[in-house]
Write a structure and sequence with these properties.
Strand content: 5-15%
CATH architecture of the largest domain: 3-Layer(aba) Sandwich
Radius of gyration: 23 Å
Distance between the termini: 58 Å
Largest sheet: 6 strands, mixed
Number of domains: 2
Helix content: 40-55%
Shape: elongated
Length: 338
Amino acid sequence: MGGPAPAVAATRSAVRESLTDVVPDSGPVLVACSGGPDSLALAAATAHESARRETPWRAGAVVVDHGLQAGSAEVAAQAADRCRSLGLDPVEVARVQVAVDGSGPEAAARTARYGALEAAARRHGAVAVLLGHTQDDQAEQVLLGLARGSGARSLAAMAAVRGVYRRPFLGLARDTVRTSLADLGLVAHEDPSNADPATARARVRHRLLPALEAELGPGVAAALARSAALLREDADALDATAAHLLDADLGGGSGPLDVGVLARHPAAVRRRALRRALVLAGCPAGSLTRDHVLAVDALVTRWHGQGPLSLPGGVRAVRSSGMLALVLRPNDPPPNHT
């Protein structure tokens, strides 16, 4: 009797390799399953691996119902039923309220979804939450970051492992993942929003990436994903160096920063340390732009007597006597770091 089809074997192997460090009785693995093709293929591969005699972990699933489309509750219930039929246990549906704000509906839905997944992980004592992002998703993320003029950290896109989250399919092409679904005879729900040209991601997926493949040849998505992996290594190294600079040489950023110490370091390290110090001082990370960091950096490298800088969160940057102080403006409440 032959083994599984190549695409099925690839998805199962990806899940197995992603969870090699899980120790026995350390808690369940949860699949974040929307019922779409990629997450359903992930659920199927995870269920198969969980059932193997030598596997030290059990697997369940969480289906998040965002309530943004008519019939979403029915779609979520069907996804949960499919997960149960695959043998996953426990399986639960988490219904969330999406608070749309200035960040846009896609970002708001993502915030609500991850909040629900984290809550489910705590409830079940999960050792990992698996996400179905593929190599193509990674490539799309890189292109969106390029369009925004982002730095290395953003262009590094998604990590294969970050905290409780793991992305076993990040090295697999979307076609491979979806072929595995067809090979298993499973039918997934297709979210119509994924093809909505009103969203930038849909335009990248259905127009830009195919155009790049047509003009530059096949393999563009894989090349972009490799670039993301290389940039992630670089960004991790620079972030670690900046953290060491701040913690070991600048008192952890809790007091005035020595301008001479900062000036001796390359811009990429120095500006990361400054950004970290600004956040610690009370600047909201989401409001802190590159222009803010560059303006503070100018107090270090292009000092000509300029006055204090007003920054997000009520923080003020002041240079005096060779020291850079990051302080709250008078009458501003202290930052909440809880």
